Amino acid sequence: MSLLTDLPLHKQLFKALDKLGFTEATKVQAEAIPAAISGKDLLVSAQTGSGKTAAFLLPILHRLLEQESPNTGTRALILLPTRELALQTKKHFEQLAAFTYLKCGLIIGGEAYKHQVATLRKNPEVLIATPGRLVDHIEKGNPDFRDLEVLVLDEADRMLDMGFAIAMHTISEY
Description:
4-stranded parallel β-sheet; alpha/beta; Rossmann fold; 6 strands
């Protein structure tokens, strides 16, 4: 394992990592973070508990902090197969972004639709969503993805197994 401080991350992210007590990068983080920061598209397969979520969240946060956007739309979309995983990812995002101005929105089934419309109107820099509910919002023209720079399909194989192929295609075309 390598030290997280060896990774080319924005200084505000190191504050959060320090507060969380993270000092060493896992194998997936050490390999994926530099590649993602350099702008490469990645296909990553890793065991549960390997640090995969931080391996995609940290480069997203770094990018958004380093390359400020003059526009106001959502810049990163993270799709996940279940609301539980989406809630975990949102919590992890908030921990890693604690010392930044970056905000995320959550779009999942089982939550108040009107509240989600208000979240989308605020154009959070990062949107964490499940495919089914996000498609509901797309069909009504709610999200603004004109400024979208990053798309993460977390557990894409599971989303396909759950029958979200058409929803994922609809989202990627939007």
